[in-house]
Model the fold of this input.
Amino acid sequence: MLTVQLLIAALALVAVGGWLAATDAALGVLSRSDLLDMANHSRSANALRAIAGDLSAHVNVVNFSRIAAETTAAVFVTAVLVVVVDQLWLALLLAILIMAAVSFVLVGSSPRSVGRAHARAVLGTSASAVHVLRVALGPVAHGLVALGNRVTPGTGRSAGFSSEEQLLSMVDEATEQDVLEQDDRELIHSIFEFNDTLVREVMVPRTDMVTIESTASVGAGMGLLLSRGISRLPVIGDGADDVVGVLYLRDVARHTYERPDDADAVAELARPALFVPESKKADELLRQMQLESNHLAMVVDEYGGIAGLVTLEDLIEELVGDISDEYDRDVDLFEETAPGVYRVSARLPVGELGELFELDLEDDDVDSVGGLLTKAYGRLPERGATARIDGVILEAEQADPRRGTISTVIVRRDPDYDPTREPTTGPIVVIDESGEPQDDEGPRLGSAEPTGDVEAGSGPSGATTSEKPRGKKAGGRSSTSPASDTSPTDGAAGKKTAVAKADAAKTGAAKTGPTKTSSTKNSGTKTSTTKTSTTKTSTTKSKTTKPQDEDAR
Done:
């Protein structure tokens, strides 16, 4: 008779444990705002408000009660089996197996699934009972939690997320289960990445800035604003580093309408400019521009020079993706010229190149593909300069040796890349027609990494041409500029192409297996092409480019 009573009690405790597990899962799904909303339409309004006011304490009580119910049920089942089964070890083994299966199915898995799927219904019927448990067992549960915090290393245990990675992982899981849309997932990831984004990563580079001299007439300023399709224009004095203000299209239009015959200089209409360091966080700048009602800021480098400019639209696009309108034009940031071979703009962000080849190519020192090639090559790359970087081979296709810039890069996978070994990074030996490595000529950057941003397209300090395209990478950020209209190198026949490190060339490193390229002369121009490259119909992938300032037309 006693054994039957113990079995009935054990089954009842298992049922209670399952109900508590479902309640715990429901509390984990619903937020405080959800609980308060339920309180407005439920008979258990007071209990729901109490739970919302101290959610963690109610969760602790529910977990304590569930563990107590499971433990007691296990003791009852063990006692029954000890009486029924003659051998003690067999009785204990059966008790362990039975309670493990029951706890997993009837307490752990199934009730929690029900609690997550029907959180409002479960909590709506159990809110009063949960609050009663909190009042009755709250001190006991609180004492046990305090004891656990004392004996556990660390501080500040809570039921919340311990890291951004944990929260983002939950977002990814919710997307896989169709709870969140893919666009929502990307927006959430962008928000977290935005906190780590620097202004220099989203700015329009100095070489792409459109500026006007302070002595220019208002009419010239109006013409430049209209031709470029922008609404704000930096006004410079003695060079690009001397920004005296910002010219607004509305001010110019008003002045032209009210005083059409005046020949005033644009400096008289320029408003004070906002200057920010390139190391400033993008989210901090966004808040500052919102507070100061400013839509354009000049970015200053560590030496006090102008590094570029950033607009409010640039910052917003880091969160929501590209914002296009009828003034934007498409610029090809990369195109597939052969299977696995891409022609990319030197301004393409390193992160987007990594996504293209499904590799981790992030580099803290450079932002663009051109900068990545320059860093790995160790000198200002000429046309044909080739380097191996973490699983890909980069080759400068179009370059301007006078300015030390490149505009397009040919990228292909490194056939010798082994992800299990440490990646090989550096220039690749180029073989001339005689089969010998070429001499090392040209100003090398040395073994040290370039100081500052070595990016493709960086030119003279006063360059104020072209516009900036943007490429938004999935789940996050990137802002790029179109490749400059730089023509291929036209030099003398004696001009050298890409050269490997001097010591490697002198010791015959070319014979040990580095990738070889051949050079041919054509009309005085030396061009470097790979032996295995073939010309095929290119598949072009485009992205939208826009002027440096479109956030307020």
User: Anything to note?
Assistant: The two ends are 87 Å apart (CA to CA). The chain has 15 helices and 17 strands. The first helix runs from residue 2 to 29. The CA atoms of residues 390 and 423 lie 5 Å apart.
